[in-house]
Amino acid sequence: MSIEGEMGVQSMLPRPEVSCKCPKSKCLLMYCECFSRDVMCGDKCSCYQCRNNVDFEDKRQKARKAVLEKDPNAFTNKLEVIGGEQS
Ligand SMILES: [Zn+2]
Ligand SMILES: [Zn+2]
To answer: What's the 32 CA to ligand 1 centre distance in angstroms?
Structure first.
C-alpha cells in the first residue's frame, strides 16, 4: 500500500512556479513568462485576456507552432539549460 502512495507522489512532479502580468500579448508571445517556458498560465498570473490556458488550447498550439517555426529551439533551449550543467 505504501509503495503505491510513493509512486503516486513521484508521478506528480511540481510544476515550475511561473507567473506573468501580460497586458496585451494574450500570453501567446515570448514576452509572456509562462508561454516562453511552455507552461500554461495559472492562478498566480495577473494577465489580461489570457489565451495561454486550456480554454484556448487551439490558439495556444498555433502560437507555439509559429514560434517553433521561427526558432525550433525556442522552448528546448531553456530546458537544456536547466537539465545540463556540464560544460
Ligand atoms: Zn501567465
Ligand atoms: Zn496569461
So the answer is: 6
